[in-house]
Amino acid sequence: MKKSLRYTLPAVLLLALGIVLGWNLQQAVSTTDTLASLRKLEEAFLTITQRYVDPVKPEPLAEEAIRAMLTELDPHSVYITAEEMKELRESYQGSFGGVGIWFEVVDDTARVVATISGGPSEAAGLMPGDRIIAIEDSNAVGLSSREIQKRLKGPEGTQVKVTIRRLGVREPLEFVITRARIPLYTVDAAYMLDEKTGYIRISRFAMTTYDEFLEHLEQLKRQGMQRLVLDLRDNPGGIMETAVELVDELLPEGYTIVYTRGRIAQAQITRRSTSGGRFEYQPVIVLVNRNSASASEIVAGALQDNDRALIVGLRTFGKGLVQNQFPLSDGSVIQLTVARYYTPSGRLIQTPYHGGDLEDYYRQKFANYETTVFHPEDYINEIPDSLKFKTVHGRTVFGGGGILPDVIVPPDTNSILLEVSRRQLAFNFVRDWFSKHEFELRQQWTNRQEAFLASFTVDDVMWQAFLDYAQAQNLFGSDSTATRRFTIAQAEAQRETLSTLLKAYLAWQLFGREASIRLFNQIDPVLHAALKYWDRAEALAAYFAPKADNPLRKGR
Fold this sequence. Notes:
Blueprint: H1 11-29, H2 32-51, H3 58-71, E1 78-80, H4 82-93, E2 95-98, E3 101-106, E4 109-115, H5 120-124, E5 131-135, E6 138-139, H6 145-152, E7 159-165, E8 173-178, E9 180-183, E10 187-192, E11 197-202, H7 209-222, E12 227-231, H8 240-248, E13 256-262, E14 269-272, E15 284-288, H9 295-305, E16 310-313, E17 321-327, E18 333-342, H10 358-374, H11 376-381, E19 388-390, E20 396-398, E21 407-408, H12 416-422, H13 425-445, H14 449-455, H15 460-472, H16 488-493, H17 495-511, H18 513-520, H19 525-530, H20 534-542
Parallel strand pairs: 11-12, 12-15, 15-16, 16-21
Antiparallel strand pairs: 1-18, 2-9, 3-4, 4-5, 5-6, 5-7, 7-8, 10-11, 13-14, 13-18, 17-18, 19-20
């Protein structure tokens, strides 16, 4: 069994980092330059709060001063308020005290999309489609999603009264729900694409992600999985340890996964794989895009540099900073960079940044993205030798920030599917359509997800309604405007694809995220392109076949 890495970076080390940095800070305060700067800040703060023409609240002034100081450092050293910190902690712990529903606000009212299986709302009797009209006898109509979440959350074991309206029921219904620990799952979808290809999509790296990944990996192996697509697109990262644990399951013993370098000795960390991984030898393809960041880039970089997986998609974001959280007296936190991440070959994941100009930082990111997507050969030809690195088996990979995929799949900018998705035309149409036809749709398809996925079709009535909606939203036409225009004939030519998109959004309304992802994947050009490169992924996997079967590993 794979040795767990969860506790190999103990809390003692994190504490040590804080202690050492705190000691350095105390030492620094004794220097003349630092003391003079602190006095200057104090003088400015007191002058503003005491002499400005209008009364000034000191707290927001202090918060803005902290934010301004951090802006001079790097784009990801930030100030986090106490309230924001509470929400952030919940998201990465993988659970919170709540009622266990997914909802969206439609026409000023929260509509339950799904209840979490085994959760308190399901036990109390809430159903998909219920409209929340009051929480604790206080009107909930017109509230934002954030405000509704805030009112529904609370300490585990406490109760909250929720009043709803239900289709087909004349009078409002009241439910008293006992809040419980609600898991926040980070694996959005895990299923078989075909008889031997498994697919796992991870939305972020939280404390629960490793266990979720293992559970789904074993389920797919029992279903016959012989190769894996790991989808990290739009994954903003999260906890480094979880990413390291995941990579460790895909690598044999002794390979570098990631290392960090910083000013202090405790920030010099190298992580290597251990023995007993659950999927060490089979082919793997990893999907990434410009929103794959931080821990996602650690995974992609480690698998690319060790020649373990084929990376497909678009260049990743380029966030490779090790950050520690330093609490302030009011519960707020300074999230400060203390080191940088490097891939096994020595590539710095972080995009270069010169302090103070965030707009220029993101402008340059976008320019690099455009070049790598639409002119990859030109971009690669201009990369200096100092940013060229070698993988374990001698392939050339490139630095400069982010992970450049082995196979770049540019978007089809002339695609009507891309335009409909970008402008959320299908999403908005389906939401309105579902509101009008919800009763009959739920009556026909509730608890019949597999039947819906297999047999539901967008009929002529729904298709024509979508065309009419798209026409009203100026999708069609020939006049020259800033908005790209298409013809109805082009839409008709892509009816099957666009109908699958509509069906996917209906599946989200009826069954939740995983069902919709399975349909989105049927028309996903990046996934379809990736599946054409199994020969390259298999060639990489061959390096890791057991020694007895693989001459490439003799003597390793």
